[in-house]
Design a protein that fits this description.
The chain is an alpha/beta fold and 538 residues long. It is built from 20 helices and 15 strands. Helices cover 49% and strands 13% of the residues. Helix 16 crosses helix 18.
Length: 538
Amino acid sequence: MAITVTDRAPVPGAEEILTDAALAFVEELHERFAARVPELLARRGERRAEIARTGRIDFREDTAAIREGDWRVADIPAAFADRRVEITGPPSPASMTINAMNSGAKVWLACLEDASSPHWANVVDGQVSLKQAAGRRFEHTSPAGKQYSLRQDGEDAVVVVRPRGWHLPERNVRIDGEDAVGALVDFGLHFFHNAATLAEQGRGPFYYLPKLEAMEEAALWDDVFSFAEERLGIAHGTVRATVLIETITAAFEMDEILHALRDHAAGLNAGRWDYLFSIIKYFRDAGERFVLPDRADVSMTAPFMRAYTELLVKTCHRRGAFAMGGMAAFIPDRRDPEAAEKAFEKVRADKRREAGDGFDGSWVAHPDLVEVAMAIFDDVLGDRPSQIDRQRPEVEVTAEQLLDVASAPGGRTEAGPRDNLYVATWYIAVWLKGNGAVAIHNLMEDAATAEISRSQVWQQLHNAVVLDDTGRTVTAELVNELLDEQLEKIRGQVDAADYDEWFAPAGELVREITTSDDYVDFLTLPAYDLVCEKAAAK
């Protein structure tokens, strides 16, 4: 095999990360594992076609013995035993890394996926920051001259890295003339540079695995971990992974996914927007009963979402694994204490539900929310690091309950597609510009938000939904009208040059993927095409 790296404008720190030895390791990962990725992605398509034909999913008959078996995942490492609050965000710029690790959260989820835009500069700079973070002596001066340094009291957050999903390529790395697998590039570079350091500290390497749809995809990760450990002389089982259960098919394979990773498993996480996005993706042809209410109305207390989270807690604790709750995405407005307190109370209510249901910890998006969430889990956990010992034998969840989307309360109003089009356009524009996490209307939004937003519009259009408040049917004409309206609104909120370069192309991409007869599996794929086209044109 032969590996090559883009020869575009050099990225600061690239010489430290893109060493011959590191690239040889990435190449070796591809030689052994890359061919399995398109096979697994093809299986997703076959499964989607079957689900479209039958209109249902069920627990797998061929894995019943795994679900019924008496087994547990490997014991959790001491440094990873307390995860009551985790903060999320991208590792680039470096100031984000230091602020997250200094936030007081137990864990920092360093996101190379939904909260990162895969501009090559971000990919490399993120790895530079992660290498500095592993050393735990990290200082940074921003372009504006502000000084950042990592706290040295031993209370810095444990780092968990989220690589890209199996579906995303890395077009700046080519192996035998083909795009590299983004997940293997992210993992390979991080593991090569940091595994020995983190293992010596007893702090990893730890990972979050996104977008998995079946146990076979988890098994591929397990094989990657085992090979990487052996190849670099790291003890088997040192790597620990938490899987985001953010697809509807994965919700039917929680036991199987933990079992596939059992020597490397740490737990499962209950995502929200990606989970709803997956339901739309899989059941987009299944008619009215799978059409969701307005995004703002779909809460974690909807019956089908309760079934999903209850099953996740029960499954994890039965297997000795962490059950991690979802994101508190509020961005407190420090200039408006009254509004901030209302946001805090919403976060408290959500975290009380999670802690009361048995979750061992949860996510926040902003440092100001760490203390708020920490207080809730402190009340429930006390001095215990988790509540894994809390079993939930009373929980019995059926396939029908997981798929009972029709029982979700809420309306379908014109505000729904209007807001969705605004958020999708704004987020994609910022993503194209190079930022993968952005505050919109005091909420931290990432790619999952854009995915559910554009998917809801597509679903409503292709199911001819009649809006409750206006009585209008969602048609291509209505979507175009609302999108034009939102683009004019955005035009008045940003600089003209920014609008022309980023927001107008983003709006046209949203128009294309919401009104097309064909449903685009991931909006980040055509968006990445635009990123690469713009980079090549420079």
